[in-house]
């Protein structure tokens, strides 16, 4: 019995010493001022100034809090490191001196905070006023010589582990499980809207029809404001959604329009490329091993951080190579849904959409 008590005391002392060691290591990491800013951006994707601002905002506007053992700043650094790499190993083994269980808990707490309504409303907003829309229109007009454009829309697949429930809803056409996330961005690759509720088996056009932005754009047109989004041929032509003209004759007005359309819509592909390059947990080969609901929240958290970086005009980290995201190679032009089958009242809207497209062609 005496021997067992000694072993128990030795075990407790060993655990206490390990905890103290991790605590002291974390205390040393609390001060980030000594780390060169370029190295900090490479590891955590935000500058030190922006990181500190983010911590203040999360503390003020969400329920995220630190503890004496793990300050809020360490929780945020831990999460940024995971989102930037998609791996627990760097976080656990090198960066933050946390156990994997503690790391997972910190990541979930910070991801929940980044999904807080106050944070989403602050960083991801679709233009709500005529002045905001006019400012975006002017930039698209100046850059791509296309009038009336207030955003580009597309979907991208975020790889997830095979879910246990409703697995068929997440198995996409490329042969793996994913979320099919729809985003709208502006000329500056700033994300204006995100819809991360659907599985990889859902077609882009269905996600658009269920989006809150579709009726909003419809109301703008009904009120007489002629603005539109740019989508690929997987979307239905509508007065508020312009799609390319397939097989346009070389040198024709239609071919000029389609060429400019493709150049402008490249913004959303570059946006996806930058998003996934900066936050590598979203890359196809870094499959998110989470329930789809949690994976959706992680994706939305990355979108918030993307906008924070874009608005702060942060340089792209030196270890990031931006690739154009083309929906994982899926050619939506060859999988365009039948408009008459997709929408019962599509014919009237299609006619109105073509009329608005002809009006746009006359302005080019």
TrEMBL record:
The protein, known as: Nuclease HARBI1
Metal-binding found in the keyword field: yes
GO molecular function: hydrolase activity; metal ion binding; nuclease activity
InterPro entries tied to this protein: DUF8040, HARBI1-like, HARBI1_dom
Any Pfam family matching the protein: DUF8040
Keyword Metal-binding: yes
Cleavable signal peptide: none
Protein family per UniProt: Belongs to the HARBI1 family.
Domain DDE Tnp4: 153-307
GO cellular component: nucleus
Keywords in alphabetical order: Hydrolase, Metal-binding, Nuclease, Nucleus
Domain of life: Eukaryota
Cofactors: a divalent metal cation
Annotated ranges, domain DUF8040: 39-114
């Amino acid at each position: 019995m005496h021997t067992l008590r000694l072993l128990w005391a030795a075990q407790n002392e060993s655990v206490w010493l390990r905890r103290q060691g991790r605590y002291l290591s974390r205390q040393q990491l609390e001060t980030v001022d000594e780390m060169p800013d370029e190295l900090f951006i490479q590891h955590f994707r935000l500058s030190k100034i922006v990181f500190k601002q983010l911590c203040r905002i999360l503390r003020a506007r969400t329920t995220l809090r630190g503890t004496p053992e793990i300050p809020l700043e360490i929780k945020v650094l831990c999460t940024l490191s995971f989102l930037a790499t998609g791996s627990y190993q760097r976080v656990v083994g090198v960066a933050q001196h946390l156990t994997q269980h503690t790391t997972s808990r910190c990541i979930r707490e910070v991801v929940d905070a980044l999904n807080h309504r106050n944070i989403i409303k602050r960083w991801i907003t679709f233009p709500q006023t005529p002045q905001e829309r006019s400012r975006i229109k002017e930039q698209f007009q100046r850059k791509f010589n296309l009038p009336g454009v207030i955003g580009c829309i597309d979907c991208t697949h975020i790889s997830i582990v095979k879910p246990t429930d409703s697995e068929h809803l997440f198995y996409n056409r490329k042969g793996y499980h994913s979320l099919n996330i729809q985003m709208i961005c502006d000329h500056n690759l700033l994300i204006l809207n995100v819809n991360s509720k659907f599985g990889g088996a859902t077609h882009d056009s269905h996600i658009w029809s269920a989006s809150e932005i579709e009726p909003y754009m419809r109301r703008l047109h009904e009120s007489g404001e002629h603005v539109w989004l740019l989508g690929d041929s997987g979307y239905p032509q509508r007065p508020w959604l312009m799609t390319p003209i397939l097989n346009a004759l070389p040198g024709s007005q239609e071919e000029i329009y389609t060429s400019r359309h493709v150049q402008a819509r490249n913004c959303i592909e570059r946006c996806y490329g930058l998003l996934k390059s900066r936050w590598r947990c979203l890359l196809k080969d870094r499959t998110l091993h989470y329930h789809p609901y949690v994976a959706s929240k992680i994706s939305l958290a990355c979108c918030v951080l993307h906008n924070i970086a874009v608005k702060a005009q942060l340089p792209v980290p030196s270890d990031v190579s931006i690739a154009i995201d083309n929906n994982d190679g899926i050619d939506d032009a060859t999988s365009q849904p039948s408009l008459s089958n997709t929408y019962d009242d599509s014919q009237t809207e299609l006619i109105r959409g073509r009329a608005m497209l002809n009006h746009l062609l006359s302005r080019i």
